[in-house]
Amino acid sequence: MTVAVACSVLLLPACAGEQEASEKRHIASNFSELVDNALKDPTLQEFDRDVLERAKASGRINQADYDEAYGRFAQCMATAGKPVKLTKLSNGLYRIDNTPLADGESVQTAMSVMVKCQEGTINEIGELFGIQQGNPELLANADEVAYKCLNTKGLLDTEFSQEDFVKALNEPRNEDTNLQDRLPFDPYTDEAQACFVGANIVIGKGNT
To answer: What is the mean pLDDT of residues 175-195?
Structure first.
């Protein structure tokens, strides 16, 4: 089983160090602050700047703008020969399933294509919409975000503590157990995946 945690600049600034995570519980005082910070990025392209300006005026990023951003990203990846599968979850967020590496292709090469296609598409818009949908409390700890969401959906209860949850996610892979065995719910259902993606935690199936 492969469990990967993706730390984004907007969602998880505390990923830079455990000390920061313990000192700062929230990433901003409100969502508008995050939008304003994103608009300061000098590398913004016309599309994402337009979307962010609308978000600044309305206080939210529209689902249609988010969908358009991911459509542009997917088209870029397809043109580059690395098509992705997008799965829309119950909270409106997309889970990305990448194309397997080609023979002789390095992870670095594949990542460089993805990074390039994220520019002017989902870099800012994807991050902010993810926070809007999956982390409305603007919490800095991804594990706390996911745990609260899963509790709200009734997928686990307080008897399974946040500490138990973190331990289950981080336990090393072995031949005798997989993530489904360590959690009291199926982590691959739409509802569970919505919580994980909303917390910017990527849970991918792999060999046990």
So the answer is: 90
